[in-house]
Structure formats: C-alpha cells, structure tokens
Amino acid sequence: MRAGETNRHLTGWLLASPLTLVLIFFLVLPIAMIVIVSFWQATEFSIIPAFSWENYDFLFGSPVTYRVFGNTIKYALIVWVFTLAIGFTVAYFLAFHVRTQTWQIALFLLCTIPFWTSNIIRMISWIPFLGRNGLANSALISAGIVDEPVEWLLYSDFSVILAFVHLYTLFMVVPIFNTMMRIDKSLIEAAYDGGASGFQTLTNVIIPLCKPGIMIGTIFVVTLVMGDFVTVRFMSGSQSANVGRLIQNDIALLQYPSASATAVVLLITVLMVIGILLRFVDIRKEL
Amino acid sequence: MESRPRSFYVLCAFFVLFLLFLYGPTFTIAILSFQGPQGGLTFPMRGASLHWFFDLFQQQAVGDIWGSFRRSFVLGLMVMITTVVVSVMGGLAFRKRFAGNGVLFYLVITALVIPSILVSLGVGLIFSQAGLPIHWASSGFGSQLTWTLPFGLLIMFAVFNRFDKSFEEAARDQGASNWQALQHVVLPIIAPSLIGVALFGFTLSYDEFARTLLTAGSYNTLPLEIYGMTTNVTTPVIFALGTLTTAFSLVIIGVFLLTVWSMNKRRAKQGSDAGKGMV
Questions:
Q1: pLDDT (tens place) for every residue of chain A, 287 residues total
Q2: B118 vs A34: CB contact, 8 Å cut-off?
Q3: Which residues pair with A42 in a beta bridge?
Q4: Which residues of B touch A127 (CB under 8 A)?
Q5: Does the beta-carbon distance from B250 to A93 stay under 8 Å?
Q6: A and B: number of Cβ contacts within 8 A
Q7: Do B143 and A125 touch (CB under 8 A)?
Q8: Which residues of B touch A259 (CB under 8 A)?
Q9: Of A97, A119, A198, which is closest to B207 when you measure between CB atoms?
Q10: Which structural domains are found in chain A, ordered by start?
Q11: Separation of alpha carbons B265 and B256, rounded Å
Q12: Do A13 and B93 touch (CB under 8 A)?
C-alpha cells in the first residue's frame, strides 16, 4: 500500500515535471528577480545591486502613483460593468433562445473567433471609425447632431474603454455560456410552473446558477485590464496612464529597479483581487 | 414549434449588434486596405487598388515584415507543439491527486492572471543578469509558454472532467498496460480536444505581444513589428498588413476547425462496432 502511494506521487510529478520546470524558470524565478531588483538602486546607465527602500519610498511618496493606481482601478471597474452586461446578454441569448445545437455552436464560434486574431490589429481598426474624419464623426455631422467633429472619440478615456470592451467581452461570454449550458432545464420549467415570471426566473434561478461563470469571466477581465499597457498607450494617444504604462515608461528609461517596485505593488494588488474572487468559485470543478 | 417570445427578437437584435461591434472595425480596415495610392487612413476611398499590398513586399518601405512573419510562424509552431505535449502530460498528472498538486495548480492560475509586463520584465532581467542572450526562440519562447500553457491545461481539465473512465478500465481488464491504455484508448478519445489545444497554442503565440516585448531580443516577431509601425507609419500600408495577418489567422482557425469537424464526422460514421462480432 505504501509503495503504491509513493508510486502515485512519483507518477504525478513525473508527468507534471515539464509544466513545473517551465513555470519555475519563466514565472517563479522572474517574479523573484523582480522582487530582488525592486530593492536595488539605479543610475542613468546601470543598475546597482544594493539593498535600499528608495524605490518604494519614492513610489509611495509620489501623488502620481495614487492617481495612476486610481485610474487603473477605474478602467477595470467600468470595463467590468460593460463586459458583464454585454457578455451575460449574449450568452443568455445563445444558451436559452437559440434552439438547435448546430446553431448554438456556430454562433458561439462566431463570438470567439476574434479571440484568436491579433489584439493590436483590432485596436488599429478603430482609427477609421473614431478619428477626426472617421465614420462616427461623418455620421454625426450628416445627421445634424453636431456641427464640428467630436474630438473625444479617439485618444481619450472613451476610446480606451471602448477598445477594452471590444477586446475582452469574449472572456465573459465564454465562461458564462459554459455555466448556462450546464443549468438543468427542468429547474427553469419548475420556476415557471411555480408561477415565476420570466424576469423572476432570471434573477432567482439563472443568475445565481451562473455565478461561477461570472466569477471566472471577472477574473479574466479584471486582470487583463489591470495588467494592460498597450491598449491604454495606443487608444489614449499616450494621454492617459495606468500602472502598466508607468512600468513601461521606467523600463524605457532603463530604470529597472523602480519599474520592478511598481510591478511588485501591481502584482500584489492583482493577486489580492484574485484571492477575493477565488473564494467564490472553485475553478477546477467548473471546467 | 411554439412561436418565439418577443424577448427573442430583442435579444436577437442585441446579438446582431454585438457581432457588428465585434467584426465591424476589422471589415472596415479590410476595405480601407484597398485604398488608391493617394488614399489616407480614413474614408472616403480614393479609388481602389492593390497598391498598399504591393508596398508590403518592398523591403525599404516598412522594415522587415517577412522576416518577422517567418519568425512568428516558427515560434508559433514551437509553442504549439510544446503546449500540446506539456498540457497533455499535466492534464494526466492532475487526474490523480499527488503531493503538492494544489501549489502547482495555483502557479498555473498565477501564470494566467499575472500582468504580462511582469513576465516580460522578469524574464528579461534574468536573462540579462545571467549573461544569457535574449532571443525570441529562448526567452521569448519561454515567456509565451507562461501564457499558452494555462489555457492548454484548463482545456485538459475540462476534457478529463468529461472523460468516461470505463473505456480505460475496460482496456485494463483486457490486460492492457498503463501505456497501452493511454496510447490506444485515452489519446484517440481526446484527440479532437488536442486540436483545440494546438489552436490555442499557435494563435496565442502568433499574436502574443506583451510577454514578448522585452524578451524577443534584436529580431522582432510580427506583432512587435506591427506595434513599431503604429508609431511611425501613417499610410494604409498598416491596414494592408493588418488585413493580411487577420486573413492568415482566419485560414489557420479554419484549418483547425475543419480538422476537428472531419475527425468527429469520421468517428460518427464508423460508430461503435459493439455487438457486430456476433455471428
């Protein structure tokens, strides 16, 4: 019996060893390195291994930090609300209103295909829409709603959030659709038989049963938005900042220790958010 | 069939709008990439031509597009194969509890949720401090795996959660060894899902940007090249490139989906031969 036990653990680790090695070398060690470097010092040309709280002192002493972290959380919250509302509605339509499985699969694929194409190209694609002479402005002007082109369509918070919603709504649709498909249809019929209206069934039966999917989607959207630096740079025309941009700026100036300190604080923030969200869902059971 | 409720039509309209939102911009740049030689980044179209596509083939115009495409393609294949092999092994490992499987699972989740720029920064720092050359096929390859492996592994979890173990047990009862049961029973059954894992591995790598930014070294991958172009190219040539690489992605997705479809179809046609041995 004992031999069988050891054997089981050994087989497990042998099979998991490639995965473990990749994660150690390209995840654990890099994080450790960032934590170490965040205590180093830097000159304009090089980084110096020495222990100092300098980077953190500077980070927590600067009002820019709080503003940028506040901005990052603002983006995450707004994008979360929109992706959840749109994602839930789309998944609800696919799961409960599309009747044949073939159509369900086809429409679901149609929703997921953009996930496998380039994010950068999808961001660039908004330029002809939102630019000064873009489609949106021409439409507004010809409809007589505005006289001059609207300036805040591109290179603004509006365009940043639009791009985030455009890129990440899929991450809500897929897990919510997945949990909806597992809801036993007889529960919904039971609710109707018990006299519940469509809306009551939605709020009392479907939404509670979809919570795991909503949580998984939330984890994706929140972490992707909080860790982003490309979308904000590109869609705001470098006018807005989030934490990712702050880190990237430091990297561009070769200030690795200060970039690392910001990265450590960002990582801790993200992991805390995920830690809270994971209390509501057991991912391994939900797949 | 009972008639549709009114909510169906409202939701259906919402869904159509969502698809327009999802695909509209991509179609727009596809149209604009056929701008005439005098055309700009927005409408109106000034004639229609293939001018900007030809522009892509001229080296000086826009940097080393084809070199970067070749690198991205090779890297995509490397990541794809590694992701499939490592995810299947990992998925098999997690079928039984082993000491420390919880820790490993949380590491996988961390790899998924960690802001990409941390991987980029950390791997870049390690390689430069250790004096190792930073190259897309070494540091870039590893960084991309931290993004593709969690997806591969989560798919494997989903697959094995639905896996009917009785097939495997039946094979064992007939005297199959562990390896034989895996090779002749488990792998053929999960094969279509492996195509899915491969699709994730290739496309996520082919389009990966943030984790490759500081880990690709002096030779850019295609997304990095495109990112560079966004800051200094102001002609529709960037739309032409966008259209071509999106078309390429769509072809790849199509090939993968067709493979899964034909596999399932063949399987359905052959069906079960249970009971056919009776004379």
A1: 455 667 878 888 899 999 999 999 999 999 999 999 999 887 766 777 878 888 898 889 889 899 999 999 999 999 999 999 999 999 999 998 888 888 998 899 888 888 888 888 888 888 888 877 788 888 888 888 888 888 788 888 899 999 999 999 999 999 999 899 988 888 888 988 888 888 888 888 899 999 989 999 999 999 999 989 888 988 888 778 889 899 988 888 888 899 999 999 999 999 999 888 888 877 777 76
A2: yes
A3: A47
A4: 41-42
A5: no
A6: 257
A7: no
A8: 121
A9: A119
A10: 64-286 (1.10.3720.10)
A11: 14
A12: yes
By the 8 A CB rule, do B8 and A97 touch?
yes
Longest dimension (CA), chain A: 82
The CATH architecture assigned to B60-264 reads Orthogonal Bundle (1.10)
Q: Which of B12, B129, B145 sits opposite A26 (nearest CB)?
A: B145
Which of B11, B43, B110 lies closest to A128 in CB terms? Answer: B43
User: Would the CB atoms of B209 and A107 count as touching at under 8 Å?
Assistant: no
Name which of A8, A10, A22 to mutate to probe chain B: the one with the most chain B Cβ atoms within 10 A of its Cβ: A22
Cβ-based burial of B274 (10 A; exposed 0-12, middle 13-18, buried ≥19): exposed
Smallest Cβ distance to B125: which of A34, A97, A284?
Answer: A34
Return the ∠ at Cα A36 (arms to A34 and A37), rounded to 5°: 65
Q: Which residues contact B269 (CB under 8 A, 6 or more apart)?
A: none
Residue of chain B nearest A167, judged by CA positions: B22
* Alpha carbon distance B140, B134 (integer Å): 8
Q: Which residues 6+ apart lie within 8 Å of B188 measured at CB?
A: none
Residues 6+ apart with CB under 8 A from B113: A219, A223, A270, A271, A274
Structure tokens at A182: 């597992």
Sorted by sequence, the CB contacts under 8 Å of residue B23 that are 6+ apart come out as: A114
Taking the model in full, what pTM does it have?
0.89
Q: What is the DSSP letter of B5?
A: P
CB B223, CB B75: distance < 8 Å? no
Q: CA-CA distance, B117 to B124, in Å (whole number)? A: 10
Whether the Cβ atoms of residue A266 and residue A227 lie closer than 8 Å to each other: yes
What is the number of H-type helices and E-type strands within chain B? 12, 0
Domain regions of chain B by residue span: 60-264
Q: What is the CA B227 to chain-centroid distance, rounded?
A: 19
Residues 6+ apart with CB under 8 A from A179: A209, A210, A211, A212, A213, A214, A286
